[in-house]
Amino acid sequence: MRKLFWTITFVLALAALAACSNETTKEAEEPKKSLQPLKAELDIPDTIAVNEKVQLKAAVSQGDEKVADARKVQFEIWEEDKKEDSQMIKAENNKDGTYTAETTFDRDGLFTVQVHVDARDLHTMPLKKVTVGKGAAEGQQAAHEEYAADEHSHGEKPKDEHGHGEHAKGFSMHFAKPEHVKANADTSLTVHLQMDESPLEKAQVRYEIWNAKTKDKHAWADAKEAKPGEYTGSYTFPDAGEFTVVVHVENEDGLHEHEEHQLAVAK
After folding, report:
1. For the chain, what is the largest distance between any 2 Cα atoms, rounded to a whole number of angstroms?
2. What's residue 212's pLDDT?
3. Are 131 and 46 in contact (CB under 8 A)?
4. Cβ contact 131:47 at 8 Å
5. Environment class of residue 31 by beta-carbon count within 10 Å: exposed (0-12), middle (13-18) or buried (19+)?
6. Where is this region: Disordered (predicted)?
7. What is the CA angle 17-22-27, rounded to 5?
8. Within the chain, how many helices (H) and strands (E) appear?
9. What distance, in Å, lies between the first and last C-alpha atoms of the chain?
10. What secondary structure does DSSP assign to 45-108, as a single string?
């Protein structure tokens, strides 16, 4: 009986060690996997006819694995120099690592299509410029070509004060506009930054905030990098109303970008 007791104890101990070993291996593999960047490849025609139904497609991967479990995928579309009027289209998950949506363009022009992918606590947002119909007016076309030829990818490009404008070549910014913001409540403000489709790390990010009552006195909120390329800060809006939030981004390479957003604050 005593021998049987020790045999059972030995078997249970071996099982416990095996379980611990498996758990350790799993924990070792997960951090390695999480370090791999999220990639999204856009599959969109370079030229599109006016009123033509076109499919927007993004193939999402992490390392060699297709990502079929993205939390949110959206396509953002805007006309040249009109990012403030951009349109968001929710993508359908095809369960094979691809995400698609359909849209049409109702006029000639130069447009930008950017996909925003949130998956596995990571964010990526590659973009592509497309020509619709006859393209843009002559002046816009010249400005577009000048921008595309600019080799100073880390320098500041001229833009309207506090406007969206065109960012430096390779730079992308996505402000995750909070919903249901209330006055006198702490509000989280988050922006995702990329340079050449990789997270832009170690940047200095600040939010400049004001409304009609405080237009001569602007508030500032600093953001910290919570994850690679993701910067979060917080602010308590003192009143209800329409507030302007300008995201300011700088880094040691001379990058200096800003983007303006309007935020409705309820009582």
Report:
1. 95
2. 83
3. yes
4. yes
5. exposed
6. 132-168
7. 125
8. 2, 20
9. 75
10. -SEE-TT--EEEEEEEEETTEE----SEEEEEEEETT-GGG-EEEEPEE-SSSEEEEEE---S-
DSSP-assigned beta bridge partners for residue 102: 55
For each of the domains in the chain, give its residue range(s) and CATH number, in order of start: 38-146 (2.60.40.730), 172-266 (2.60.40.10)
- Work out the angle at residue 250's Cα, subtended by the Cα atoms of residues 79 and 122, and round it to the nearest 5 degrees: 70
Residue type, 260: E
pLDDT digits (tens, 9 = 90+) for 11-31: 555 555 555 555 555 554 454
Please name every residue paired with 232 in a beta bridge, in sequence order, or none if there are none.
190, 224
What helix, strand, coil percent values describe the chain, rounded to 5? Answer: 20, 45, 35
Low-confidence ranges of the chain (pLDDT < 70): 1-35, 137-166
What is the value of pTM for the model shown?
0.69
